[in-house]
Structure formats: structure tokens, C-alpha cells
Amino acid sequence: MNELCNFLAEPIAQRSLWACAAIGFSNGFVSALVVLRRSSLQIGTLSCALLPGIALAILLFGFMQLSILLGAVIAGLLVGLGSLFVSRTSRIDHDTALSILHTTAFAIGYIILVRLGLQQKVDDWLFGNIMSMSNTDLLIAYLTGALAVLSITALQRPLLICLFDPRAAATMGIPTRAFSYGIFSLIILVLVSSLQAVGAFLTLGLLVAPAATVYLLTNRAGWLFWGGGLIGAGGSVLAFFLSFPLGWHLGATIILVLGLIFLIAYIFSPKYGLLAKKQ
């Protein structure tokens, strides 16, 4: 207990705790869009496609945080939109095109980073390291999270109409295509801002599990946003306090805790989970 108190007195621990709460909330909030769009696997695929953008940004501009962020965003958008273009101009379906492009992009990024002698940084980007987040990383995560939460809150009604009934949205004058690209871009931004915290391999859990848990407990779509945010933040903070005494990797512990919360909701949900099947 004394060791934990001493650890919490350290500035790095306090920064990490705030990062867990803020990043957990913003990802949990945005996870509602991923669940409602039924695009979990696509987003998970795109998370690994960010690596070549990071690699090229470092190769061209060095370790500049802004260039790394922009490189990751551009890589994610190019792979995502490129796969859509390939699927629309060939016999290949979207998932197949996305799989080919993202694995190729990941291989290119990995080769460049290893050639640059950045093996340790590769591990951080793949699995995350909240403790090593710089002030710039934290600022980017906070601003991106705030932008996502405010934008979704302000446009929640037209967003839900576009997600559930695009034709009705079009007849109401809602720019469905712009909203679709906007949702996609917003998810990519949140994905990139969380990369340093939980890594490309684990970020999918943070962008899916919170809202998926709420989805087991209610059929009201609006509750997925705030409920997902609270579960994302609460689960991340709980993981922070568990990882220190257990000596576990913090990013992996966050995803493990969120997975266990989802499992509990699945078992005890009276209407939509495991108990409903036994009735």
C-alpha cells in the first residue's frame, strides 16, 4: 500500500492516471459509432495500417510529434479509402481489399522502422506505453477526445439517423456521404491519438468493448455514447490501479479489464446476454 501511495505521488503516475481516464472516456464515447456502424474489424485492421505513416514521417522529418500524427492519419485514410476504391473498381470485396492493403502497409512500415534502428519504439506503437507519453502526446489525446465528444454530442440526432436509415436521412436533407466520411475520419483521429497509450494491436478493444458492453444492457442507442465513455474511463482507471501491484503491462491490463466487464455484462444481462438464452 505504501509503495502504491509513493508511486501515486510521482508526477509520471498522476499524468498516466489522468491519461487513462481521458483516453478511456473519449475512446469509450466514440466506440458507440464503431458498434452502431458494425465496423469493428475494419477499424481494427486500420489500426495496424497507421505504422507506415509513422515510419515515413520519422524518415522524412525525424521525431516531430505533429508530423508523426499527420503521417499516421494520412496512412489510415489512404488505406481505408484506397480499399473502398479497389472494391468499387474490381471484383474484390471491401474486406479482402482492406486486408491486402493493411498488411502490405504494415510490412512496409515495420521494415522502415527496423532499418532506422527503432525496434523499441515499434513495440511502444504496437502495444502502447502510457507511462512514456510526452506532454505533446497528452495534449493531442485531450484535444482529439474533446473534439470527438463535442462533435458527436452536437450532431448526435442526425448521426443516428444516418447510421440507422441513410435513405430517410437523405430525404430529410442530411448530407449522408459527408456524415459517413466525417464519422470515419473522427474514428481515425481518436485511433491515432490513442496509439501511444495502448498501441495498434490493443486499441481496437478500447474502441469496441465499452459501447458493446452497454449494448448488452439497453436498446437505446443514445445511451451507448455516455455509457461507453463511463465504462471506458472507469475500466482504464481500474486497470491503472491493478497493473502496478501485479506488475502487468498497463495497456494490456486496460483491455483485459474491459473484456472482463463485457463478459460480466454478457453473463448477467437479463434481456440480451447469456441469461436470456437460458430462459
Automatic annotation (TrEMBL):
It comes from Candidatus Akkermansia intestinigallinarum. Pfam families: ABC-3. One of its GO terms (cellular component) is ATP-binding cassette (ABC) transporter complex. It comes from the Bacteria. GO terms for biological process: response to zinc ion; transmembrane transport. The keyword Ribosomal protein does not apply. It is found in: Cell membrane; Membrane. This is Metal ABC transporter permease. The keyword Membrane applies. Keywords: Membrane, Transmembrane, Transmembrane helix, Transport. The chain crosses the membrane at residues 16-36, 43-62, 68-86, 98-118, 138-156, 168-192, 198-217, 224-242, 248-268.
